[in-house]
Each structure stands twice: as C-alpha cells, then as structure tokens.
C-alpha cells in the first residue's frame, strides 16, 4: 500500500519543482499566502511526519502563528460577531499576528513574551513554528525567533494543513492573551 505522502510526491512533485521560491534576505512583507522557500537559514525545515515525531517527544514548543481575523469594521448595531475557532496541534501556543514582515513594538513584545513563556526563558529550548501550507507567516516568525537568539528553531512549511492531511490529532486552541 502506498503511503499518502509518497502518493502526493508522485502526483505533485513536478508542480513543486516548478514552484521553487528563493529564500529572501529579509522578511516577506506582503502576499503571505503564496509558495514558500524550502529553506530558512539557521533553522531546520521539517516535514509533517518529522514534526509529529518531535511533538510526540514533548520536548519541543509548538508555536502556531496563524493571524487572528479582525472583527469587520462597521458591523450593523446588534450584529453578533463570532470568531472562527482555530483547530491546531494539541498543546501548541497560538501567537497570532506575529508573522507579518513588519510588526509593531507591541506585537514584538507580545511575541517575545510568548516565546519566553513557551521556553521558560531558555533560548536553547527547541521551538517549532507553523501556520498553514504556503503561508509566509511561520517563515517570518521562525526567522524572527532566530534573530531573537533562539538556538534550535524548526519550521514546518505544511502547517496544520499537512498535519490534518496525515490525520494527526487537533484541538481547538485560544490565542495567548
């Protein structure tokens, strides 16, 4: 029986080869939902199965950086606004909006505090960043963590899309306050 990942590689490898993206020197500043590079200097790029193995050890802090959708402006009075729930990797810390190319000082402090909480202040503690497939948010966030001085940074380009594809467990998570 052919595994799903192998089947996908057979079917989509020609498309992936055509979509090679060069790693930029700086952060991606716009069009965040687009093909991503296969590398991130200083980080270890992992596939979904490797990420699952790391998750099972419990020794790696998983950081979800999916942006939080803003409440639409000018909603009619009395409109009930319900945020879409985020189903993510169990035990992950959700730090929304930290993966933009340029972040405000408030967001920078929020990101640093979140990483400090996830690692107990230990910059040697391993971190794994993810978002969705073909999303630059996790690439930017992992790059920023490296610049903050974190030693062991993993990046999972397939994000929760890849995780769900392999039928790995998910749970609803809330953003870190």
List the helices and strands and how they pair.
Blueprint (H helix, E strand, L loop, with lengths): L3 H15 L25 E2 L2 H10 L3 E4 L21 E3 L4 E2 L10 H15 L7 E4 L5 H12 L5 E3 L3 H7 L5 E3 L4
Parallel strand pairs: 1-6, 2-4, 2-5, 5-6
Antiparallel strand pairs: 3-7
Structural commentary:
With 177 residues, the chain is α/β, with parallel strands linked by helices. It has one domain (40-68, 83-177): Oxidized Rhodanese, domain 1 (3-Layer(aba) Sandwich), CATH 3.40.250.10. 33% of the residues lie in helices and 12% in strands. The protein is built from five helices and seven strands. The strands form two sheets. It has a five-stranded parallel sheet, covered by helices on one side. A two-stranded antiparallel sheet has the order 3-7. Strand 5 (127-130), helix 4 (136-147) and strand 6 (153-155) form a beta-alpha-beta unit. The N and C termini lie far apart (45 Å).
